[in-house]
Design a protein that fits this description.
Length: 176
């Protein structure tokens, strides 16, 4: 790994909650080392207001977040100007993980970090807020583990294995 910031793309189907949260968390926690983006296979076109409320409550600026298609990055990457070249691509929902993703130039390392969809939560505002807080906690845990990997000393296969492990165990819901 070089000293240049690494680009990370978080994918979800709707790009309205989990991938937006992951983008914000990575940009804050990985500042200077990583630059995060998010997109969806079938974007809703709107960022979930609960996601924005949670980010605001955690002191994140929320301007500039939008629900967008992964086509923006895939099309730009195949010849568009200013397209980021991704070093890592993470799916954060099971639907996106099962879909056929675009071919990303540069052969980024990919992993699935499935998180329950807080946008699907039902109930009171407090219950919905709790679902978003839990998704935020899980993503923060996984991103924190990712950022603490000794990337300079890991070969590609070892790094892939560690990323897969993070997606399976880190930040899972606490037992009741």
């Amino acid at each position: 790994m070089t000293d240049a910031p690494r680009n990370v793309l978080f994918l979800c189907t709707g790009n309205s909650a989990r991938s937006i949260l992951a983008e914000a968390i990575m940009n804050r926690m990985g500042k200077g080392r990583f630059h995060a983006f998010s997109a969806g296979s079938m974007p809703t076109g709107v960022v979930n207001p609960h996601a924005l409320d949670l980010l605001r409550s955690q002191g994140y600026p929320t301007e500039g977040y939008r629900s967008k298609s992964w086509d923006e990055f895939a099309e730009a990457a195949t010849g568009g100007a200013g397209a980021p070249r991704f070093d890592f691509v993470f799916t954060v929902c099971d639907n996106a993980a099962a879909e056929v993703c675009p071919i990303w130039p540069g052969q980024p390392i990919t992993a699935h970090w499935g998180i329950p969809d807080p946008a699907a939560a039902k109930g009171s505002d407090a219950e919905i807020g709790l679902a978003f807080a839990e998704a935020y906690r899980m993503l923060s845990n996984r991103i924190g583990l990712f950022l603490n990997l000794p990337m300079a000393t890991l070969d590609r296969l070892s790094l892939q294995r560690r990323l897969d492990e993070i997606g399976k165990v880190a930040g899972e819901p606490r037992p009741a």
